Amino acid sequence: GLPAALPALPLELTVLYNSLLFTVGASDSVIKGEAEGIRQGLLRVLEACGACGEDLGMEELWEKVLQEVTMEKLQAPLHRLGALQAAWWLAARRLGSVAGLFQLLSTAEDPGRAHCSEGQNEILSMIKAWQVPPEEASLPLVQSAKDLKEILCTAAAFLQGLQELEAGNFPAALSLLQEAAGGFCSKNILAQIYTCLGCCAQQMGKPQTALQHLKRALQVDFQCLPALSHVAAVYRELGETDVELQALTLLYEALRKNPPAAAASSSPYLLMRTELLVYTPVLTSLLRHRHPSEVKYLLAQRCLQDGRVADAVEHYLDFLSLLQEQQVPLDGSSALPRIPEVFLEAASALEQAGRHQDAITVCKEVISRTTDLIPQVLRVEERLEQTESSLPVAELAGGLLSQKKESLCCLAWRAAGYLQQGWAWAKLGESKEAVTQFTRERLSGGCCLQVCMCLPVAENLQPEVEVLQKIRLLSLIGRGTQFLELGRNKEALLDFQHSLQISPGDPAAASYLVQALWKLNRKQEAAAQWQKFSQSSPGENGQQPGQGRPLPLYLASCLEQVVFPHSEPLARSIQDFLGAAAQDTPS
């Protein structure tokens, strides 16, 4: 409440500088928004000089103070306070304000020195050009202005590097991140910078350089586990599956032993630190700590994709154990797929490993959990029915589409459960039970799919509908093969004909259709179909418009099951038949 007095202002501003730094250190974060304490300090300076600035914004206030206050003893405290203001603005990503402030500070010192050379980064040049005011023994500081300048340089380079990385300007990002790596920061921040350098190099198509940066991050701070996660991703890109799986295994073990926690600074004596100034969504994304269960699932998935069935089974069963022990996050915070899909992938792995009964058990769990979630009638055509509601049309339409999308997912999971059970029973030699399961799949999703095929489907639902159509195709082919095993060739023929209606030109359905006709002694028709199929180009077989999306992993084994195994013997038989028919034809 005392009036401002010029002789006391150097002490007053130094106390303000120290107290703001103590506030930052105690809260371990930079307070969002402008520091009100700095504003009050500047107004006190103007008051002592007989001026006012209550109606000015912070940038205008700084400009007025630095232009009007010429007292030599006030310059050092004001410059230190200016550096602290720059830290606040940097944390708020107000880079233009930071550059403008340091230009004012440098101009106040030497009007001819506030210049940025061509090709140099403006903000970094401005900060580096700023001369740190000398410290006075009578006014001790809790953190020197020299340290604060170094931190501002590092943080400015790091923050701008992240912005360029997010914008896709990778060469500029690389240069700025390298500048930050040579700056003043703690070990955990240096490891984060090297991790970002690795991600940048990977985006530039330089995987080996990316690995060098990521390994450097781990050398600096082995607790920087996101770097290990990115190492696995780079090795996957390089196709080095063995090393990728080793990295994922190491990551899983490290996460199990040391769950992610807030990294402590290796420089506790610094109240203002780089990590308090650089916090952006892109950095959060790049440094996201995976949950152990997420890494375990990724191990299972990659083993299954690479054909390492025994390892895949082990990892999937470990994941299901974690799920049973409630050690799997189900709040959407991880990148895990939907749990029914994981169960179906586990069933696929078990089936490929020859554990058919276990696969059947897992599929039964999926079917039982999803059945009650599927409505009796599900319309997926493009036109939404008009409903009396006070909700806006767009919100109503979005809610209905979301509900239908979820219902279609449940329908696909249940249908896939029946499909996988059918193939498991077929492998056990139980053709009748296999036919029953394939038929249940058709009863499960057939009605909905008829609607899908006859009416235009809403675009947002197209991926789910395509998966359902593929499941139905695989079930029809699967049931047809079991009818052939049972000698029910006419029923098999009908299924293969229906399959070709769903996916005209599908090579497996066409081959089985030819075989069914051959078994029914309709050899002329079989030969004609075989010739038609043989003459079609590979790109035409089974490729429908809009069906280029990758199918779920849990269907991969089913796709392998329907591959026709008797192509060469059947082709020879038909060629012999056509040759004999040609000889019998009178010339």
Automatic annotation (TrEMBL):
<dbReference type="InterPro" id="IPR005158">
    <property type="entry name" value="BTAD"/>
</dbReference>
<dbReference type="InterPro" id="IPR019734">
    <property type="entry name" value="TPR_rpt"/>
</dbReference>
<keyword id="KW-0802">TPR repeat</keyword>
<dbReference type="GO" id="GO:0036297">
    <property type="term" value="P:interstrand cross-link repair"/>
</dbReference>
<feature type="domain" description="Bacterial transcriptional activator">
    <location>
        <begin position="457"/>
        <end position="546"/>
    </location>
</feature>
<dbReference type="InterPro" id="IPR011990">
    <property type="entry name" value="TPR-like_helical_dom_sf"/>
</dbReference>
<dbReference type="Pfam" id="PF03704">
    <property type="entry name" value="BTAD"/>
</dbReference>
<dbReference type="GO" id="GO:0043240">
    <property type="term" value="C:Fanconi anaemia nuclear complex"/>
</dbReference>
<dbReference type="InterPro" id="IPR039684">
    <property type="entry name" value="FANCG"/>
</dbReference>
<protein>
    <submittedName>
        <fullName>FANCG protein</fullName>
    </submittedName>
</protein>
<feature type="repeat" description="TPR">
    <location>
        <begin position="473"/>
        <end position="506"/>
    </location>
</feature>
